[in-house]
Amino acid sequence: MKVILLEDVKKVGKKDEIVEVSTGYANNYLIKKGLAKEATSSNLNEIKQKKGAEQANAARELAEAREVGKELKDKVFVKKMKAGDDGRLYGSLTNSDVADLLKSAGYEVDKRNITLATNIKNIGSVNAEVKLHRDVTVKITVRVEAE
């Protein structure tokens, strides 16, 4: 019997795959537990529409990320921090600080998607890498100034 898996099932297949299993296994285990449904023409059409919508959504997200990347590429963000007379910061500039800078400028980026070469402990400019999407990474400039 052909079934469409609704979840990943060990030794059978992954979600949304169409697999051939014995009728008893399909009826008594997979369908009964809600792990699969019978592969009828209407269910197959539903899966095709779902995959098409997912692909369109992924393409839209990629386009949005590229657009935001173009906006961020040329911008310089300024962070004012407490520093001593010799230019050393009290503390350091971290991923969280850069994420807060981007958030205040209207860009929502998770701090885990921001990469600094090291934690910045001196006044000056530094490049940070921001991952907006799996395929879109942008380098921005952060200038640290004394308060």
TrEMBL record:
Pfam families: Ribosomal_L9_C, Ribosomal_L9_N. The keyword rRNA-binding applies. Residues 1-47 form the Ribosomal protein L9 domain. One of its GO terms (cellular component) is ribonucleoprotein complex. This is Large ribosomal subunit protein bL9. Binds to the 23S rRNA. Transmembrane segments: none annotated. It comes from Fastidiosipila sanguinis. Belongs to the bacterial ribosomal protein bL9 family. Residues 63-146 form the Large ribosomal subunit protein bL9 C-terminal domain. One of its GO terms (molecular function) is structural constituent of ribosome. Keywords: Ribonucleoprotein, Ribosomal protein, RNA-binding, rRNA-binding. GO terms for biological process: translation. Gene3D superfamilies: Ribosomal protein L9, C-terminal domain (3.10.430.100), Ribosomal protein L9, N-terminal domain (3.40.5.10). It comes from the Bacteria. The keyword RNA-binding applies.
